[in-house]
Specification:
Elements: H1 6-15, H2 18-40, H3 72-107, H4 110-125, H5 128-139, H6 143-169, H7 173-180, H8 185-193, H9 198-221, H10 233-237, H11 243-248, H12 251-278
């Protein structure tokens, strides 16, 4: 019998996880709808139908309209694009920063380790909600400021995990041999650091993606994220601050709220499945 690789065993464990597969079943259709809605949906996110302001769901507007006559379905799907764009950008930045800091701390010697870990400690001692609001108020609303703020708040946890893994990896014979042959820091990071932390990175990316979507929605709800008229699940739900909208036009805030809830749940299901799949303690098949 041919022994399967660790990646193949992780894939098999993931495919046996029903919760993770349910997350995939929710996430894939959502991504298809978000990515293709402008091909099949008549209304754009900022098209105004003055004859259908605050209209309930109908054959013309499947999920109704908002107070100025914009299609709620189109804006919800565009809000999904915005959320995924913000999450992708912030996760990419936080992964790059967290991996580099953690790897430099592990492979760079005592001085680099001390500087890197004190920076991580400082970042982790700051109250995240207050820092998030302060940074968002300084940078102002917008797509890229929101990406930067979320990324700056997210990298320290990953840096600690990467450092912990690579402190163990650097003592292995193949790393010691590479150092003895004169391998430099870039070679160690790319040839030995990255392959030995890929499981951490995959799980972190998945779970942090959901967290970034929630943070963007919260900032946009407070007026510090994506500004109108751009569609965002967070700024769409600000309509619920009005008692009239909350009680009489529930489709205007329930639709983006449901989209946010289901998307985050699906991503968390997939992330939990990946974490269990990459954890060798969940099975040795």
């Amino acid at each position: 019998m041919v022994a399967r690789s660790p990646l193949a065993r992780a894939g098999a464990r993931f495919l046996r996880n029903r919760t993770a597969l349910a997350g995939v079943a929710l996430l894939v259709p959502a991504l298809l709808l978000i990515g293709t809605y402008d091909w099949w949906l008549r209304w754009g996110p900022n098209n105004i139908d003055l004859l259908a302001r605050n209209a309930p769901p109908s054959a013309q507007h499947w999920l109704g309209t908002d107070g100025v006559g914009r299609d709620v379905l189109a804006r919800t799907l565009q809000g999904g694009r915005t959320s995924f764009a913000v999450a992708s950008g912030s996760v990419l930045l936080s992964v790059a920063a967290g991996f580099l800091v953690g790897a430099l701390a592990a492979f760079g010697g005592r001085g680099a380790d001390a500087v890197a870990m004190r920076s991580v400690d400082l970042a982790m001692t700051l109250p995240p909600v207050i820092v998030l609001l302060v940074l968002a108020s300084i940078t102002g609303p917008g797509l890229w400021p929101t990406v930067a703020v979320i990324a700056l708040l997210s990298w320290p946890v990953l840096a600690r995990m990467i450092r912990a893994r690579l402190l163990e990896v650097r003592e292995r014979d193949f790393v010691q041999a590479a150092r003895g042959m004169g391998a430099g820091l870039p070679h160690l990071l790319l040839r030995h650091g990255l392959p030995n932390t890929i499981d951490i990175l995959v799980v972190y990316v998945t779970l942090q993606f959901a967290n970034a979507i929630l943070l963007e929605a919260g900032l946009s709800f407070l007026g510090l994220g994506i500004p109108p008229p751009a569609a965002s699940w967070g700024n769409m739900m600000t309509a619920a601050q009005s008692t009239v909208v909350l009680e009489q036009f529930a489709w205007q805030w329930m639709t983006p709220g449901a989209a946010l809830l289901l998307t985050v749940l699906a991503i968390n299901f997939v992330g939990d499945g990946l974490r269990d799949a990459f954890d060798p303690r969940t099975g040795l098949q």
